[in-house]
Amino acid sequence: MKQTIHTLLAIIFMAAFTIGKASAKEVIVPKMYMFAFAASFTDTIVHFTNIMEVDSVWVQKKHKFLIGRENYSHQFRDFLAEKKEMPHRTCVIFFNKSRKKLEKQYVKMKRLYTQSKGGQKQFDVRYIYPEEFSFRPIDINVYILAEQERIEQAKEQELQAKQQREAAKKNKKEARKRRKEAKRNKKG
């Protein structure tokens, strides 16, 4: 019984936490700079795109985090799978509003994969140029609807947890009542 109550409390706290996270406001940024990186665990080929300027992207106001970043990552992954015939790549998107800051990240990543160890190249670095690939804008409405659905599900879970708590309380009360009646019946 105690374990059930602890589980219900954990669900409530998780629901409250997700509802709090979901309230972050989204804002549109006129331009964002991005580049993509892809690697695989099965070979030494890595891919880099150039730094690209992407217009009208959405970010979370509070955390300044790119909304739909997995979509941008999937765009690059799909490009590699279809056009370069290199499926199953792990793709990462790097982004920043400041081109200078992103260039520092870009140089650091390139250095990590282009420097040789002991005179031998560790990775086969391949560059993808803007003529081959560029990011397409995403529809934020899909993400807003998904977020609203997630909030509704969290509220529903919270309501279910409350109902389960109330039912557990009622069952506990009834069990206590039955024990008292059983004691009275033994004495009588």
Task: Report on the architecture of this protein.
Helix content is 53%, strand content 21%. The protein has four helices and five strands. Strands 1, 2, 3, 4 and 5 form a five-stranded mixed sheet that branches. The chain has a domain of 109 residues. The longest helix has 48 residues.
What's the β-strand tally? 5
The stretches of 5 or more residues where confidence is low (pLDDT under 50) are 4-13, 15-23
Helical region count?
A: 4
Main structural class: alpha+beta
| Main sheet properties | 5 strands, mixed
Order of SSEs: HEEEHEHEH
**Portion in helices:** 40-55%
N- to C-terminal distance: 30 Å
The average pLDDT is: 83
Relative strand content: 15-25%
Shape: elongated
Please give the radius of gyration in angstroms.
27 Å
Topology (elements, then pairings):
Blueprint lengths: L1 H21 L3 E14 L5 E5 L2 E9 L8 H15 L6 E7 L2 H16 L9 E5 L11 H48 L1
Parallel strand pairs: 2-5
Antiparallel strand pairs: 1-2, 1-3, 1-4
Sum up the structure in keywords.
single chain; 188 residues; alpha+beta; five-stranded mixed β-sheet; 53% helix; 21% strand
Give a short synopsis of this structure.
The chain has helices at 2-22, 69-83, 99-114, 140-187; strands at 26-39, 45-49, 52-60, 90-96, 124-128.
